[in-house]
Amino acid sequence: MQHAPHPTVTRSEAVRIAVLTATFGLWLVLWALVVPAFQAPDEPAHFDAALHVATGSGWPAPGTLHVSNAVRAAQQEQASGDASSWSTVGALLAAHPGDSETVDQMTQHPPTAYVADALVLRVLHHGSLRWDHALVGLRLFDAALVTPLALLAWAAVRRVTRSPRAAVFGTLALFAVPQLASIGASVSNDAPVLLFGGLVVWLASRVLTGDLRRRTLLGLGATLGVLVATKGTGLPAIPFVALVVLVGGAGAGGLPLAARLLRTAGTLAVAAALGAWWWVRNLVVFHTLQPDGYAAIRPDRPFPAGEHPSVPHFADVSFGTLARTFWGSPGQRAQVSIGDTLTAVLTVVALVVVLGWAFRRGGTAIPARCLAVFPALLLLLQTVSSAQAYLRTTEVAGTQGRYVFPAIVCLVVLSAIAWRRLPLTGAARTATVRVLAIGLPTVGLWGLVVVSGWFWNAARGPVSAASVDRYEAAGPVPFAVVVVLAVLVAVGLTVGVQQAWRVRPVPVSSPSPSR
Q1: How far apart are CA 460 and CA 462, in angstroms?
Q2: Taking CA atoms, which of 55, 87, 255, 420 is between 20 and 30 Å from 340?
Q3: d(CA 274, CA 113)
Q4: Residues 472/473/474/478 CA torsion (nearest 10 deg)
Q5: Which residues are registered as beta bridge partners of 66?
Q6: Residue 130 in contact with residue 83, Cβ under 8 Å?
Q7: 124/136 Cα distance (integer angstroms)
Q8: CA angle at 512 for the pair 510 and 515, rounded to the nearest 5°
């Protein structure tokens, strides 16, 4: 099947997207320094798991790893508020040996991300680092992993829409999700999942738009294998990739079904060779695909007499939590919100536009429908898991918008398709472009303002003399570093907004289906 040719990337366009990608990286670094230590979701447990691996403690069965006394002591030191008196990692391990009674649930996941973090800790000589500096070192490592997501979003949108302007908006859209920056710049196993999930979606977008080369399929299979070897949220990418490879090359003049089936089997075989080992082990050892590391934390309990499961209650809590923790609800317990009204408006607008215009007939219909499968499966599996836990424990738990982030590039591409298809012309279209160009980064900046004010200024505004003093006392770097980063991000975003306003479609180059 022949596809329309794609616009050539000019040198000036390459420079501009490089600037915007670098800005996204600085944006992540800014979040890594602004959010206080241990104030990202499950960050104490993630840091503890990496520290256990770095000190040679291995990777025990789910539910049997316990938070080290050293990490608990670090949390107690943090309560003092004066970082100058905080201990090094080595001093904490020597003064507080052994583990506490608190369960660290992270061994329910593959050890892949934690082995990488442990290597980083060893390279940094973590024993001689103050514990918050060791934690920031891991945050910066994760930020470096997530930075290419800006380039991948640009490339995927450009590939599917063939629009340089839409591709710029694809990158700007990442700034509109403060939760993405908070998670991507924290110590967690989500950072490599974001990177490899983005790579899978970019390669899938190439297959869906005519790139049928074997090396593309090999890269797709290998990337999928690393993704599923990192975290269970990568497993829904398996049927997604199978569908993409099966559909790619279909149609008049395309590949026959037998060839597409063989290519699909080959791609999945590559993925299995790299990523199936952990899940096969779970089935053999624990007789389940994903053991529950929370079993000791949330034991089963029946509903009280006279009470029963409520579908409206489950739906209300699930949808509200999903929306809030997708757009922006940072904090260890997701206690900081960018605003319920703003979250509701963003969610409704995004759903109406995507569901209304992304899947209509046209050249992007098949790619759009295939790309929707990955986030849909993530939402479905999360909802089923949460519903089962609700029936067992009476708690609506395990529902997080960040669990959809492995497919964030899918959502960006679908949004780009939908917004381009809105039936607007003339002044209305120009106004929409300008509102989006300014509005997308504004949402992200608002999230940073809210988080800064919450943690450093007692939720009374982003900056004051008292908040600067607090940061100087308990922050990981001098406040001047934060100011410089904020200025650089502002400059980069200004360049990005100008690109979105000024970029025009470029002439189409000579056809080459696999380019």
Answers
A1: 7
A2: 420
A3: 15
A4: 20
A5: 103
A6: yes
A7: 11
A8: 115
Q: For residue 218, what are its two tokens?
A: 């090999």
Q: How far apart are CA 397 and CA 299, in angstroms?
A: 13
Is the whole model's pTM more than 0.90, yes or no?
A: yes
Convert the pLDDT of each residue in 52-96 to its tens digit: 999 999 999 998 999 999 999 999 999 887 898 999 999 999 999
Backbone angles phi, psi at 396, to 5 degrees: -85, 95
Contact between 52 and 44 (Cβ < 8 Å):
no
Kindly give, in sequence order, each residue whose CB lies less than 8 Å from that of residue 190, ignoring residues fewer than 6 positions away.
142, 183, 184, 231, 402, 405
Q: How do residues 248-296 score in pLDDT, each as one tens digit?
A: 988 767 899 999 999 999 999 999 999 999 999 999 999 999 887 666 5
The answer to whether residues 128 and 206 touch, using CB atoms and an 8 Å cutoff, is no
Name the residue type at position 106: M
Crossing angle for the helix pair 11-34 and 479-502, to the nearest 10 degrees: 150
Burial of 460 (0-12, 13-18, 19+ CB in 10 A): exposed
Q: What is the mean pLDDT of residues 210-222?
A: 97
Cα gap 52→7, rounded to integer Å? 49
Residue type for position 57: S
State how far Cα 79 lies from the chain centre.
29
Interaxial angle between packed helices 131-146 and 112-123, expressed in degrees from 0 to 180 and rounded to the nearest 10? 120
Distance CA 447, CA 327 (A): 9
Residue with tokens 């037998």: 258
Tokens at residue 426, please?
């003339």
- Is the torsion defined by CA of 404, 410, 415, 416 positive or negative? positive
pLDDT in tens, 28-47: 999 999 999 999 999 999 99
Of 174, 135, 160, 109, nearest to 54 (Cα)?
135
Contact status, residue 443 vs residue 178, Cβ threshold 8 Å: yes
| Rg over CA atoms, the chain | 23
The Cα–Cα gap between 321 and 386 comes to: 12
Contact 165, 505 (CB under 8 A): yes
